[in-house]
């Protein structure tokens, strides 16, 4: 059984997609990041960076004590290795998947996240910041589009690299992007959305939070963190 500590964000969706695809039993523990649940001691014990998602595997391979994992990329890798699914065993295939997983973790996610912040949530609209991150998101879309020009999925076969990237493309309109400008990416995007497991994952999100709103109080919690929050 996987205990999933989750909220309805792109990083959270990565893990529900994997769990639905792999057919693993799991329980969702909502961590309402707009209300500060991520700072509760019981959550920080498994996710010291106070970010979702995180998991506890109560039945790890080889037995023994439960294993906790934080950071969405690490969780995807852990689950893929646990199940033997969506991550090739051969060195070449594994390397292809892992480099695109790291590309998402280091590029697409952070840049699209800053795009969201400055265009949607910042209390004042800074044209330079918005333009900077909308343009960088646009560049990254083009990288992914080019990658998909001669293959069905990001690393050949469907893998954790696709599961990592897809949720960050879902809010493309909010990111100021038009999928018609990226035909290979658009084809890939539709193919993943058509997967039953992906639809189930997003239905689970609706059950957790119909509308995760950002108000003045939640804005302070989400965007006002400093070292004292860690202490």
From TrEMBL:
SUPFAM superfamilies on file: GST C-terminal domain-like, Thioredoxin-like
Protein name (record): Glutathione S-transferase N-terminal domain-containing protein
Similarity remark: Belongs to the GST superfamily.
InterPro entries in the record: Glutathione-S-Trfase_C-like, Glutathione-S-Trfase_C_sf, Glutathione_S-Trfase, Glutathione_S-Trfase_N, GST_C, Thioredoxin-like_sf
Species name: Acidiphilium iwatense
Domain of life: Bacteria
GST N-terminal domain mapped to chain residues: 1-87
Domain GST C-terminal positions: 90-211
Pfam families assigned: GST_C, GST_N
């Amino acid at each position: 059984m996987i205990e999933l500590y989750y909220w309805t964000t792109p990083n959270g969706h990565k893990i529900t997609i994997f769990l639905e695809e792999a057919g693993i039993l799991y329980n969702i523990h909502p961590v309402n990041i707009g209300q500060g649940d991520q700072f509760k001691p019981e959550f920080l014990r498994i996710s010291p960076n106070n970010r979702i998602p995180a998991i506890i595997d109560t039945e790890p391979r080889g037995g023994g004590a439960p294993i906790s994992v934080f950071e969405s990329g690490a969780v995807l890798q852990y689950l893929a290795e646990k199940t033997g699914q969506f991550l090739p065993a051969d060195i070449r295939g594994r390397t292809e998947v892992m480099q695109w997983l790291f590309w998402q973790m280091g590029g697409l996610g952070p840049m699209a996240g800053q795009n969201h912040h400055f265009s949607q949530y910042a209390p004042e609209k800074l044209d330079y910041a918005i333009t900077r991150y909308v343009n960088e998101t646009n560049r990254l879309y083009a990288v992914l589009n080019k990658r998909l020009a001669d293959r069905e999925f990001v690393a050949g076969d469907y893998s954790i690299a696709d599961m990592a990237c897809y949720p960050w493309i879902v809010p493309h309109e909010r990111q100021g992007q038009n999928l018609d400008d990226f035909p290979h990416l658009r084809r890939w995007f539709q193919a993943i959305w058509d997967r039953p497991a992906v639809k189930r994952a997003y239905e689970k999100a609706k059950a957790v939070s119909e509308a995760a709103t950002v108000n003045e109080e939640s804005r302070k919690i989400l965007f006002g963190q400093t070292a004292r929050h860690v202490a």
